[in-house]
Amino acid sequence: MRRTALSQNAVPSGLPVLNRSWPFAGGGIRDIGMDGRYVDEPQAPAGPDEVIARIDAVCICSSDIKIIRMGKAHPLFADRDLADSPAVLGHEMALTIVDAGANWRDRFRPGDRLGLQPAIMVEGRRRTVGMDLPGAFAEYIRLDARVLAGEGPYVFPVPADVSAATIAMLEPYACVEAAYRPNCRTSLKSGGRLLVVEAVPGTRFDRPAPDGEVVLVGAGEAARAWAGGAASVAWHESLDAFAASEAGQASYDDIILAGRLDAEATARLANCLAKGGLMVLVGSELGHESVILDAARIHYHELSFLGSPGPSLSEAFLPARTRFELRAGGIALVLGAGGAMGRIHTHRALELKDGPATVIATSRKGARLKALEDDFAPLARQHGKTLVVIEDGEVEACVARLAPEGCDDVVVVAPEVAVIERGARLMRADGMLVLFAGMPFGQPCALPLGLVSSANARITGSTGCTVADQLAVLDRVVEGSLELSGNLEAVAGLGALPDALEAVNAGKVSGKIAIYPALLDLPVTPVRDLRQDDQPVRWSLEDEKRLFDGGISNASQG
User: Where is the Alcohol dehydrogenase-like N-terminal domain (predicted)?
Assistant: First the structure.
């Protein structure tokens, strides 16, 4: 019998003594929980420095599947015995406060609705709710000062007139939003460590002088004069001398490469970039020649690449050369658009007011191609844009026809070197390559880094998001310029979580699945089977309320 659901705005008169959850102790998807079932555990009231929130909705992320697949091999669990300390996954959530400890009662009250940013900082180290800390594959979640205050806060209030499923989808949409916001440095780091390699003197060092540590290699008089006021300055006559020195083994916050330098030397120096590092290429003659880089470092380490044809250094920092947003009126290519995150990139591009005029979306799976066409072609027409949905094998021919000089923007949502290199070839000389999908470190990838200098190309990567990114998405939702429900494909109750995980793992769904923990026995159900009209909004607050109030009967399992 289906458990009675709490209405979205109701708060229980007392906190339930048990909390249902799906702990992960290793194994496969069907091993989640205990003996194929969720676990009931005693639930104490909130401590003085805690709050307890009801999980109104949680969406499944592909990273949840990745964690389950990798199990103990996942880096986050390197120092954790999952058998002794199982993890409760789930990090895309919508919450309602049900119990606040004494230290939080002036800020949080029962009935307050919240969104949450799962990537938090604890004593300078990144932690994730739903991985390191217990997550939302449960009925309730217990939060403490690490999330409520700490280096955050990492929770934020949300309006009452926005569905729980939409709030849960803020995090993945915000991760996509972050890919097009300034997500890496575009200026030299004050007080940092700077390496300047000048192959041929003649660069005009017309930026403010550095104030940290500077290492010069083969630099001319202008470079030496520019660096003279730094905290410390070291000079090496040649790259060979530099490589043999202690400085050649160090990492650098910023690296300036001035003049002609071959691809191998450029790649070797790029490996010296610290996390969050910036490389500036001035007067490079590499052109389309490939430079071998670790694409995972661009994605995870927030590496930045700027450049100018020379001789001016300051030209590399002009706004036109620090673009992050899709080009207005251009042609954007999304490689791997059929999955949930690729769909979000496609969705965003189509709804972006000053975005691309044409969006080319690719997928390897026929069912996902049809879903892209069905879900987003009407949206494209509504905004006066062109959506081209094609099979993976048709990409080159399509780009040759629609963008003979290459695409203005290429977004890669597939963790494969071959796809990234393909995307780089399909990008126009002054285009932008966005590396979104993460991959293991240490996989060499050939990228046209010289175009950053000679043609104003951009190569960017990003991972995760911030509260500010989520609020930016929420603002667009509230103002009516972004409707997230177009990417919600199915809903389910907490008891059907393994089925929902399996559906995502097997690629049976293209969009997101929202789990409603209060609806215990609701099977995985496509939202199209629950709608009673053909309105463009696929899943509204009213639909959600009717489902919670029992006004929508369970459909057959999807």
Answer: 47-148
Q: Give the alpha-carbon dihedral of 463, 464, 469, 475, to 10 degrees.
A: 110
Residue ranges in 32-158 assigned as alpha helix (H)? 62-70, 145-148
**Residue (of 157, 172, 119) closest to 478 by Cα position:** 157
Q: Which helix (H) or strand (E) holds 222?
A: helix 221-227
pLDDT at position 531 is 73
Q: Encode pLDDT of 228-277 as tens digits.
A: 989 999 999 999 999 999 999 999 999 999 988 899 999 999 999 999 99
In contact, 516 and 492? CB cutoff 8 Å: yes
Distance CA 281, CA 372 (A): 39
Instruction: Please give the span between the terminal C-alpha atoms of the chain, in angstroms, as a whole number.
Output: 19
Three-state DSSP class for 52?
strand
Higher pLDDT, 317 or 286: 317
Give burial (CB, 10 Å; 0-12/13-18/19+) of 518: buried
Tokens of 282: 């001035």
d(CA 504, CA 490) in angstroms, rounded, equals 11
| pTM of the predicted model over 0.85 | yes
Residue 207: alpha-carbon gap to chain centroid:
32
Candidate from 123-127, 339-343, 359-363, 371-375 with smallest mean pLDDT: 123-127
The answer to whether the beta carbons of residues 317 and 452 sit under 8 Å apart is: no
How is residue 36 annotated by DSSP? T
Q: How far apart are alpha carbons 382 and 174 in whole angstroms?
A: 23
Other Cβ atoms closer than 10 A to 227: 22
Q: Count CB neighbours of 7 within 10 A.
A: 10
| Phi, psi of 545, rounded to the nearest 5 degrees | -65, -40
CB neighbours of residue 182 within 10 Å: 12
Which amino acid belongs to residue 444? P
Please name which of 367, 358, 433, 366 lies closest in space to residue 398, comparing C-alpha atoms: 358
Q: What are phi and psi of 4, to 5 degrees?
A: -65, 135
Q: What is the DSSP string of 423-460?
A: HHHHEEEEEEEEE-S---TT-EEEE-THHHHHT--EEE
Residue pair 177/242 in contact (Cβ under 8 Å)? The answer is no
Find tokens 């949206």 and name the residue. 379
CA distances to 130, 405, 413 from 400, rounded to whole Å, are: 44, 8, 21
- Cβ of 221: how many Cβ atoms within 10 Å? 8
Burial class, 102, CB count within 10 angstroms (exposed 0-12 / middle 13-18 / buried 19+): exposed
User: What tokens does 222 get?
Assistant: 């202008």
Residue type, 487: N
Q: What is the pLDDT of residues 428-470, one digit of tens each?
A: 999 999 999 878 889 999 999 999 999 999 999 998 899 999 9
Contact assessment for residue 239 and residue 259, using Cβ atoms and an 8 Å cutoff: no
Q: How far apart are CA 115 and CA 154, in angstroms?
A: 8
